[in-house]
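Researcher: Sequence of Mevalonate kinase follows. Predict its structure.
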Amino acid sequence: MKGPLFYSKILLFGEYGIIKDSKGLSIPYNFFKGALKTSKNLSEIAKKSNESLRAFAVYLEKMQLENPELVSFDFESLKKDVANGMYFDSSIPQGYGVGSSGALVAAIYDKYAVEKITVLENLTREKLLTLKAIFGAMESFFHGKSSGLDPLNSYLSLPILINSKDNIESTSIPSQNLEGTGAVFLLDSGIIGETAPMVQIFMEQMKQDGFRNMLKDQFIKHTDACVEDFISGNMKSLFGNLKQLSNVVLDNFKPMIPAEFHKLWKNGIETNDYYLKLCGSGGGGYILGFTQDINKAKKALQGYNLEVVYNF
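Model: Prediction complete. Tokens:
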């Protein structure tokens, strides 16, 4: 048995801001993927995944009891498959901000949800919000609190534009120009990040007036502008807004940036060779980078592991 593939995602813009109604833009990233598989002889990693699925099934039963209107699952099949050695075979790195739990949630919904909403339907805003709510409740098992966006992206495999909490739509982004020198890239911090503690820090900071004002007047303002620029392909304006956003993040989200990257972050802003921003919740994993000249960025970031995800 081998399930369909579910891909990782990259939240290009909107990390933390979408909690407070900023715009966001999330795109599928097909380099990493995962699928449900079953085996009688499980490796150590597969065994861990199988145990996690067993606990997840218990959580989903409780979730369905508490909110029967939201979604229902075929638990008989799910439990039988878990007992037979089902696991999630995934190349998506965990704790890297590219949606490892999101892909798993999407795979479980796809296989076991009764009367599921499918990608082939006319995806109205209503259906997208329903899916997002279902996925948010499911993914909370892994993160404590989830927006449901990662699994939504993985499930639909389409770019998703978040206009606000209650207004999301699938969108198109400018097609890649593989000859272009402009690029979005992932920078490997070499550290595994954990979402829950980072979200905790953010929620604590939100109790301060100064931080809340900064979020509204600077962070969300620049994030919204970046989303609009990126979708409309206005690269000149995009890089102006990215520089501002990178600055705001360096000044106000230091705990989410691994210490050894503070200097590198600042260097990008000062030289304009590249601009860095958080990828997901930060604290490790990948850092997202944007550059108008990938060769300059590679030279400036020599010795670091760099993965281009989009060319323009």
